[in-house]
Amino acid sequence: MEGCAVVELKFGQLRLKEVIGIGDGSRFGYVGDVELDLDSGQVKALVIPGRLRLFGLLGREEDVIVPWDRVRRFGDDIILVEHIPLHPEKRKKK
Q1: CATH superfamily label, 11-81
Q2: What number of other Cβ atoms are within 10 A of residue 79's Cβ?
Q3: Mean per-residue pLDDT for 46-64?
Q4: DSSP codes, the chain
Q5: With the CA atoms of 65, 68, 69 and 71 taken in that order, what torsion angle do they form, in degrees rounded to the nearest 10?
Q6: Per-residue confidence at 56, pLDDT binned at 50, 70, 90?
């Protein structure tokens, strides 16, 4: 988000925002985590936990990773993002 105003937001506030796709209004869910570049201190991506399958009995779908360069706007209760690939990137398990 080069050239944009600085956004100051606490992580607790970020988790209350729903992520919505600009193009088709897709609702991806709520932010569950962020990926940080520890060397630069910058946010690399937003992580949205995968949806529950059969009320959680069959586990979860894969997490959706939203690269920071796809984030376009923060609203009071939503985050607007550009198109996210259909096959989300796999998170490295630690």
Answers
A1: PRC-barrel domain (2.30.30.240)
A2: 21
A3: 82
A4: -TTSPP----HHHHTTPEEEETTT--EEEE--EEEEETTTTEEEEEEEPPPBSTTTTT-BPPPEEEEGGGEEEE-SSEEEE----SSPPPPPP-
A5: 90
A6: low
pTM of the model: 0.72
Q: How many CB atoms lie within 10 A of CB 66?
A: 23
Residues, the chain: 94
The C-alpha atoms of residue 64 and residue 83 are separated, in whole angstroms, by 12
Tokens, residue 25: 């209004």
